[in-house]
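Shift notes (night). Ran RNA polymerase Rpb3/Rpb11 dimerization domain-containing protein while the centrifuge was going.
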Amino acid sequence: MSCTSRFELFLLGEGEKKVSWKWDTRVQDTAIFTFNKEDHTLGNLLSKRLHKYPEVIYSAYKLAHPLIAQFELRVTTDGSFSPKQVVVKCCHDLVQDLDRFSREFTKEWELKKIANNAERK
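Came back to this:
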């Protein structure tokens, strides 16, 4: 029996896709996206961010099982944009937000180091 590191559970295997999607035939303008090798971190980020878009009527995610790194994201739009379009836009916006957060954090961290060095002198 081999011991694998937790991070290895999030690495895609040969031929595995990160995201797949299908239309929900029961509800108009609704799609279900399956994210492989991801968990609550991304599921919650996407779901909460999608709520900010006026064209999104509903978004929620669920994990298949706590020990399986996979979740389903259900998105319903008002029809002005497809669910796939808003999920792609959401991912793009989240990457921009995280980039901005990283730059601001780094700037503040550097300023803190400068301030600490000035106090020591």
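The chain has a mean pLDDT of 91. The chain has one domain: 18-120.
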